[in-house]
């Protein structure tokens, strides 16, 4: 008797694409005499694939931490600079040896960074952990990155695929929810991280880094997270935060 086999998922490769600019900078830092672990750890926080690898490692069940880790910075502290450097080197090696890798989506890196900075700034206004919010923002389009890694159109809705990937990697439910529901309308957003991602996506678009998800106006975005400030002031703060964080990628 022949037993029918279910069709395999088209999203089989989960060693996510690293942005070429981030990969180039990782290689520069790895070749530094002192290893430049501090700069390298800061760089990891700028790339969704590198951040996902580090947070995944921190949540590996064999490490036995009492709580699941949501934030990249917390994960880096737990793992230590040496292990983070090894993880980054392993991920960047894919770019060196995989000549048939797909192209990185033009919009995804800048959009993810802008949303992450927006989440961090807005989280500080409402008392949410900034590290958790920033990391959720950076990973919110991990489903699109997974699709691109597998040669599938990243602009389609891959929220469930991204959320399922992070769930399998043992990330906290609140991060998984922030990824799964980030394209929902405002009325369908329940968790605080879901609302932060939706609001930050609006400000990312205002900064010239839009994504494929639906966005609201800046005033509506601030109402969504109950932040009572002028949109222009918040936008300027997000822009400053983004410039400060990305300085390491520019080598400044």
Count of strand segments: 0
Broad shape: globular
Poorly predicted ranges: 1-8
**Count of structural domains:** 2
* CATH architectural label of the largest domain: Orthogonal Bundle
Helix tally equals 13
The top-level CATH class of the largest domain is Mainly Alpha
Mean pLDDT: 86
Radius of gyration: 18 Å
Terminal Cα separation, in Å?
65 Å
Specify the helix fraction band: 55-70%
**CATH level 3 topology of the largest domain:** Hypothetical protein af1432
What structural category arises from helix and sheet content? Answer: mainly alpha
Series of secondary-structure elements, N-terminal to C-terminal: HHHHHHHHHHHHH
Q: What composes the largest sheet?
A: none
Give the CATH H-level superfamily of the largest domain.
Answer: Hypothetical protein af1432
Strand content: under 5%
Top keywords for this entry?
252 residues; mainly alpha; Hypothetical protein af1432; 2 domains; 0% strand; globular; disordered N terminus
Describe this structure in words.
By secondary structure, the protein is mainly α. The chain has 13 helices and no strands. Helix 1 packs antiparallel against helix 2. The radius of gyration is 18 Å and the shape is globular. The N terminus is likely disordered. Pfam families: HDOD.
């Amino acid at each position: 008797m022949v037993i029918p086999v279910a069709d395999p998922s088209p999203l089989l490769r989960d060693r996510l694409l690293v942005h070429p600019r981030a990969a180039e900078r990782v290689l520069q830092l790895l070749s530094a005499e002192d290893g430049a672990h501090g700069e390298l750890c800061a760089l990891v926080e700028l790339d969704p694939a590198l951040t996902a690898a580090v947070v995944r490692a921190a949540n590996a069940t064999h490490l036995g931490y009492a709580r699941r880790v949501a934030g990249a910075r917390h994960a880096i502290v737990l793992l230590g600079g040496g292990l983070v450097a090894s993880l980054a080197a392993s991920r960047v090696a894919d770019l060196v040896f995989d000549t048939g890798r797909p192209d990185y989506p033009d919009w995804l890196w800048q959009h993810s960074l802008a949303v992450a900075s927006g989440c961090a700034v807005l989280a500080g206004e409402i008392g949410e952990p900034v590290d958790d919010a920033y990391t959720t923002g950076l990973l919110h389009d991990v489903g699109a990155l997974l699709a691109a890694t597998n040669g599938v159109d990243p602009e389609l809705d891959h929220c469930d695929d991204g959320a399922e990937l992070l769930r399998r990697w043992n990330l906290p439910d609140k991060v998984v929810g922030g990824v799964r529901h980030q394209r929902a309308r405002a009325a369908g957003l329940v968790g605080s991280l879901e609302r932060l991602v939706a609001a930050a996506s609006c400000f990312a678009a205002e900064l010239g880094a839009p994504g494929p998800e639906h966005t609201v106006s800046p005033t509506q975005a601030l109402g969504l997270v109950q932040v009572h400030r002028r949109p222009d002031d918040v936008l300027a703060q997000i822009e400053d935060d983004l410039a400060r964080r990305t300085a390491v990628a520019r080598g400044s």
